[in-house]
């Protein structure tokens, strides 16, 4: 596959205030007059970018080209010059994220490949929603300024003189970056451990902590009444896990006279997974419980809208956070203790599907299970059709269930081709046990064996060295689905009736043939109407501009799987912000960006609670402000407050 | 909670002591059962002692389970096994302090059931509230 280098320029038009962000192939000329710039250069067509209404821009001002594997910029001996990151240059090798200043305009450059084998759909930095058109630039608005971006330690004077930092309202002891579920759980624990809400800020783009999670659930066909793949006592609203969701649902149903349901839930949690199907909570119930707890701890007072652009240590042992408030407004926040829980930066796409999408610009026939794709079910409901599914995890299970529902409700001929890379005979083996397999699906109640949350597997992983950890994760993880009776009945019914078909092979090519898609696998070609990629989300640090910038600036160690290296307390130890005579500022991380570290189930509710507990216990030992160790008495007191809905 | 061996031992000692003995008290003073007798407290001690060995067996069996967990249903089966074992031993071999003829199997079963239920309910509720780290540490509450 050939990969064409492209560059994206991004600036705000000084007259209209509109953002411009063209994606261009080299060579690229920049100037005030279209006609003054050459249309070809060495037989290559020149992309001409006009920067008009500014006398300081020359008629043909600068040229950007891709030479010997580098992006370079040449100033055309102009009177007013070309500045790269604030310094005047006649010639310069560019780095993705550099800011060019030409006249009034600050232009951010970002490098991309026209077709990249590891492409993904990023979550839009301002809305937090999956957006195939979103552009990930380290600094799409030339904020923060170069002085901030290039320094390792930001001075308090810089912040004071910035005019967008108010020490009265922008300084906190604790800051949670992300404001999603990871942040919410950490903040919940801080509050329960004694910190007042005025000392905490949670920065993110959506006020409800579960907003992104809920959106991904809905997109992947888990409506509110359906059940999540989560344990009964994994309660993001309750650090004790009691009363568990099964108990609450049993109590609720009992109150409505549904005794059989109530008993069933209790039996499930008593006997699962050996003698009963594992209980899992309804999505809607989990979100409602999070809302209640958010109100109790004062989440809305701590939440602040902001898309975080960059984080730097300060010279006085804290951290400065540069963030966008939207609509061209920016601000800084300073905090002593930081928690990074930014979640999955992007949706992963299988390479052949990404190539198809980029070449055809068709985003409707080939979709990822995590992006909105209701149009497929609507279309199938009208005229039926064949859907190719890739991936054999829980999302694939749920999509198959949804397709079956369309088939049942409309009576239209909906067929499913499930394409798997290779047959699966036996499940993975670890020690004396083996994971069960049926119809080439591997079964496990949750995404890790249960003992990863708090049993011996957790201890084994924590004790292991980095390489062993990755090997252990390989043996325990992988793609699995839940052993749900209804799903297995569906699979068997579908196989018997012929509307569900399992095929093996890797896709070589996807092409549009009339209204249909032709999928070429080594043995033959398949004709389908839609393709749904259910292979998952991408969590590599390099997919997040914020994390990538942090890693680059402070040379943070990355794990072999591209995630952040954290201590057993989930601290980014290299990020300690030390200053003589004072305890250092500390930065912690949680969630999927820490996979490969001391804990396996980092992207689960209970795993986020574990990470929060470890980090806050460590902060308590370090005598961080207002934190008190949660002992038996205070725990009981706090639980009582929770039970009666009183603020911690 | 998915127990580890150390966690099993610590939890067994904690709950049988803090929950088991208060439940045993009405039996000991004769408020419930055939009359005041120290025998109920002694059987409870044996449940703890033999249990420490049983826990090694359970921990071994756990290795054969993919999830390495130990659901409530298995706790119940294990508890019944322990009771049958202790009853049989106590009836056939004179255990120190436990006179065979003093032990009514019927009252032993009633007492044992009350203790088991009390411990199970406490492990599912109060233990989680008093020891918020317990469930992440395989049942360890010390250290």
Task: Summarize the structure in words.
The complex is a heterodimer of chains A (648) and B (143). Chain A has 648 residues and is α/β, with parallel strands linked by helices. In chain A, 29% of the residues lie in helices and 25% in strands. In chain A, the strands form 9 sheets. In chain A, strands 16, 17, 18, 19, 20, 21, 22 and 37 form an 8-stranded mixed β-sheet that branches. In chain A, strands 1, 2, 3, 10, 11, 13 and 14 form a 7-stranded antiparallel β-sheet that branches. In chain A, strands 7-4-8-9-12 form a 5-stranded mixed β-sheet, with no helix packed on it. The longest helix of chain A has 17 residues, at 394-410. Chain B is mainly α and 143 residues long. Chain B has one domain (5-136). Helices cover 66% and strands 0% of the residues of chain B. Chain B is globular, with a radius of gyration of 15 Å. The chains are: A alpha/beta (648), B mainly alpha (143). Chains A and B meet through helix 6, strand 28, helix 12, helix 13 and helix 17 of A and helix 3 and helix 5 of B.
Topology:
The complex is a heterodimer of chains A (648) and B (143).
Chain A: E1 5-12, E2 19-20, E3 23-24, E4 28-31, E5 40-41, E6 44-45, E7 47-50, E8 62-67, E9 70-75, E10 82-84, E11 87-89, E12 91-93, E13 99-102, E14 105-113, E15 120-122, H1 146-150, E16 153-154, H2 156-161, E17 171-177, H3 181-192, E18 200-204, H4 211-219, H5 245-255, H6 259-271, H7 283-297, H8 299-302, E19 303-305, E20 307-314, E21 319-326, E22 329-340, E23 346-348, H9 351-360, E24 366-368, H10 374-383, E25 385-390, H11 394-410, E26 414-420, E27 429-430, E28 433-434, E29 437-438, E30 441-442, H12 451-454, H13 456-463, H14 466-476, H15 485-497, E31 500-504, E32 509-513, E33 516-520, E34 525-528, E35 530-533, E36 537-538, H16 545-554, E37 586-589, H17 605-621, H18 632-644
Parallel strand pairs in A: 4-7, 16-20, 17-18, 17-22, 18-19, 22-37, 24-35, 25-26, 25-35, 26-31
Antiparallel strand pairs in A: 1-2, 1-3, 1-14, 4-8, 5-6, 8-9, 9-12, 10-11, 10-13, 13-14, 15-23, 20-21, 21-22, 23-36, 27-28, 29-30, 32-33, 33-34
Helix pairs in contact in A: 3-17, 5-6, 10-11
Chain B: H1 5-28, H2 39-62, H3 72-92, H4 105-124, H5 126-130
Helix pairs in contact in B: 1-2, 1-4, 2-3, 3-4
